Structures are given as structure tokens and as C-alpha cells.
């Protein structure tokens, strides 16, 4: 993926050098802001928009180390904070949509893809259900 991004940027005159680190070092440097650009992925663990927008793009998440873009927009922050506490689903959705409009306009990230997850398993497995949250539960799984 890095090489494809590098090639695309070269087409518009931007030259980048790809640098790799061991995972722990990569995350440490990313959290400290030691990058001009980086590549990461994320799997939400609860299905709520807050798990992406506040955790990864909220202003407090810069100091917390999960806002690797180090982007802080006060209007975006206001909308995600209101939405986070709102119990009315329609009002909540309105605030998250406004936050996403700001995200799209400001573009602190360039979302690239949403992966399809495949699981290989024996035909003997029964009752397995794939979780949308990236976790595994074998509570009702059995072998025939």
C-alpha cells in the first residue's frame, strides 16, 4: 500500500521516502507526531460512531495518543461531544453527520478502504458467527 501511495504522489510531483519500524516503535513515533504522513487501520469494537470520531479525531485524543493526525477542529469537537451524550437517535445522527461534513472538508485523513474479512474453517464447524467488531466468540460453536 505504501508503494502505491508513493507512486500516486510521485505523479503529482510529491516525492516521499518510505520508512518502516517495528510495530511498537511505529506506534510510539506516530503518537509523538514524528511523521509527515503515516498509514494505519482501525477496527471499531462497539459499532458506535464515537469509537471512530472521538477516539481517533477528537481534540483530547491528541494528548491521549490515538489522534495520529494531530488534528483538532473545535466545531467538529462540539458536534461529536453533543452527539456522544445525546440519547435521541435522530439528533445524535444530525450531529455526527455535521461532524463528518467537517471531516470531509478538512480531510485530516484519506480513508482508503474497508476490508472484507474472510475466515477459513472446517465444514465440521457449526454455530460460528463472525463479529463485526473484530472479536471472536466461540460460545455457541460446536463440531459435528
Question: Would you write up a description of this structure?
Answer:
The chain contains six helices and two strands. The chain is globular and about 55 Å long. It has helices spanning 2-11, 23-31, 50-57, 60-64, 74-85, 89-106; strands spanning 125-126, 142-143. Helix 3 (50-57) packs antiparallel against helix 5 (74-85) and helix 5 (74-85) runs antiparallel to helix 6. 43% of the residues lie in helices and 3% in strands. It is mainly alpha-helical and 144 residues long. The mean pLDDT is 92. It has a two-stranded antiparallel ribbon with strand order 1-2. The longest helix has 18 residues, at 89-106. It has two domains: 1-39, no CATH class; 40-143, Dipeptide-binding Protein, Domain 3 (Dipeptide-binding Protein, domain 3).
Amino acid at each position: 500500500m505504501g508503494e502505491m501511495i508513493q507512486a500516486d504522489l510521485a505523479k503529482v510531483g510529491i516525492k516521499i521516502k518510505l520508512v518502516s519500524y517495528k510495530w511498537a516503535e511505529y506506534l510510539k513515533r506516530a503518537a509523538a507526531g514524528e511523521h509527515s504522513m503515516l498509514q494505519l487501520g482501525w477496527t471499531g469494537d462497539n459499532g458506535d460512531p464515537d469509537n471512530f470520531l472521538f477516539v481517533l479525531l477528537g481534540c483530547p485524543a491528541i494528548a491521549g495518543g490515538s489522534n495520529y493526525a494531530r488534528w483538532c477542529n473545535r466545531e467538529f469537537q462540539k458536534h461529536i461531544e453533543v452527539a456522544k451524550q445525546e440519547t435521541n437517535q435522530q439528533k445524535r445522527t444530525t450531529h455526527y453527520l455535521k461532524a463528518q461534513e467537517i471531516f470531509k472538508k478538512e480531510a485530516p485523513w484519506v480513508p482508503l478502504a474497508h476490508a472484507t474479512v474472510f475466515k477459513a474453517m472446517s465444514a465440521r464447524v457449526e454455530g460460528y458467527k463472525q463479529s463485526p467488531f473484530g472479536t471472536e466468540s466461540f460460545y455457541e460453536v460446536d463440531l459435528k
